[in-house]
Amino acid sequence: xxxxxxxxxxxxxxxxxxxxxxxxxxxxxxxxxxxxxxxxxxxxxxxxxxxxxxxxxxxxxxxxxxxxxxxxxxxxxxxxxxxxxxxxxxxxxxxxxxxxxxxxxxxxxxxxxxxxxxxxxxxxxxxxxxxxxxxxxxxxxxxxxxxxxxxxxxxxxxxxxxxxxxxxxxxxxxxxxxxxxxxxxxxxxxxxxxxxxxxxxxxxxxxxxxxxxxxxxxxxxxxxxxxxxxxxxxxxxxxxxxxxxxxxxxxxxxxxxxxxxxxxxxxxxxxxxxxxxxxxxxxxxxxxxxxxxxxxxxxxxxxxxxxxxxxxxxxxxxxxxxxxxxxxxxxxxxxxxxxxxxxxxxxxxxxxxxxxxxxxxxxxxxxxxxxxx
Length: 373
Fold this sequence. Notes:
It is built from 14 helices and 17 strands. The chain is an alpha/beta fold. The protein has two domains: 5-250, Aldolase class I (TIM Barrel); 299-370, Arc Repressor Mutant, subunit A (Orthogonal Bundle). The strands form four sheets. The chain has a nine-stranded mixed β-sheet with strand order 9-10-8-7-6-5-4-1-11, with helices on both faces. The protein has a three-stranded antiparallel β-sheet with strand order 12-13-14, with no helix packed on it. α2 links the parallel β4 and β5.
């Protein structure tokens, strides 16, 4: 049976980052407890099986460990979440102490993801981050002391004003902390964010795509030399530390989505919940459905998305056997022309076992994915 993920959205933050367009809100501490109660109730109204649990946000580490424990318990009881399941909590480095992390470890959380972003103070200020690099170091040291052996760091590259030397400094600092997993994201300027306004008014330059590509290539080289496995376009792990929850997404699996603005998917339906925490809480209290919208996933859409998401997995790619088992026929039965063009253009390699990106096509992966739209 394919793994099913459980995603829980915690939409609260202390401050809004300048690049963030996620569903997050500041100054709503009074809603923390009513929101947790609403989450518990919503989760317990569902039945099924979940295999991984991911607390995303926002800043989930603003919740008390006892509140997170109640959500985990609801998932275990309603969705048969196994006791050895991967349970990830996203944390901002400045929001955790060793006591807090020990409490998380005691309730079953076994993976942490820290939004480190940069080791450069000017870049952290540009991003609107509240922490400095010393706080990142302290948070990771606290995580180790609390017993965590699966810790991710998020980093952002391709920032305005960022030089290759700045990026080298951040990579060097991150590797010195010996994390178990690294997620490296090229900055995208999203509409509605302060950064978008600054670039639109000419107050800040747009990111340089060529420089961002050079930064990505440098990361590939350095992380490979440090023993990391590059298993997804933006993600590296030490052996045995791949993110099991995110693999559900990249394999186009099913996942429950709980909380304000959360998205979920079944094999035939994609849905999303109301965005505002107060409205979400009110609907739960009235016994109303929190789903704001949904769309059907046709077999054709599902096959295309399986190919596009699977191509993000650099070694695994899209398994020929898994695809045939899921859709009743091999990949070539649906995508013969796309496979031919992809091979001809040097974007993909096709073997009896899998279809995957060619290494030299990682910079232009969107071109390969668009073959399967």
